[in-house]
Amino acid sequence: MKSPQSVDVLLRAAGIICSRDGGGLKAHLKTIRHSRRIIFIGCGTSYNAALAARPLIEELSGIPVTMEIASDLLDRQGPIYRDATAVFVSQSGETADTLLALEYALKIGALCVGITNTVGSTLARKTHCGVHINAGCEIGVASTKSNNSYDHDGIGYWSQQKSSQTRSEAIAKNLSGLPGKVSEVLKLDNEMRDLAVSLIDTQSLLIFGRGYNYATAMEGALKVKEVALMHSEGLLAGEMKHGPLALVDETLPVIVIATRVIQQLQARKGRLIIMCSEGDTSNVCPNESCRFIEVPQVEDCLQPVINIIPLQLLAYHLTVLRGHDVDQPRNLAKV
Fold it and tell me: What are the residue boundaries of the SIS domain, all occurrences included (predicted)?
């Protein structure tokens, strides 16, 4: 429930990050702008948060952005060149695989940027420059506030770089009102509890998203999986016909973050739960056969910050109703 405060703190800090030498970024701006590519490296929630920011960073910077899971990068010794900027994302700043990947990139000679929630962490000390997201302490094993803060940390920074004036102004306007929108969407708590009650005996859950909200689907599924101990998969909606559609029937709940695949899922009698903007239900599903989660509408690149919160609430209530510990998921520890 502290997401609005963490968002507000981060937004106030964003002016410092961009106008002064916050984390040493300013001294390396020229190198970043001339990078052949930007590589985001992380694990779990940190990876998903970077994935959400990727489309906008590509749009605003004009630089290709690639994604790497830290352990996979190490296993295959993936190529990182000196003219790349490697961005390492870790809530704790102590994630073992991410730190090993950092050592690998440093030996190659690439510029290494850190994004973390922990001042003085190994990641903060060993990278050339970086950003502290100021999300506040994450008490539980599963990160939530940090995920919500990572996204618009990158967005707030890159929106002030190579970008059209109109787009930058629209993002800035929406950023300033974001804490209020987060508070508004948290009012869906009771509605998400009712949804959790209806799903308590379900064995699996699919979440479809595309564009900015592919990462939302991935992160929402991860939260349900790690704390509610329920099988859940986040899937790219555009890939639905290439396998996942075979799973859909009247018994399988499917959350769709409003995309063009809704009609195809309805045709298979899918048990649909649709997340869409407030007042847009008739356009998304005219026959009213679906259950809706209505969220405030913001600029498209910021929508994942809003859309992930109902899924976090759903994961929380499923966990409580199933009798599990929200802060200490089975077999997991803080990394």
Answer: 28-181, 195-329
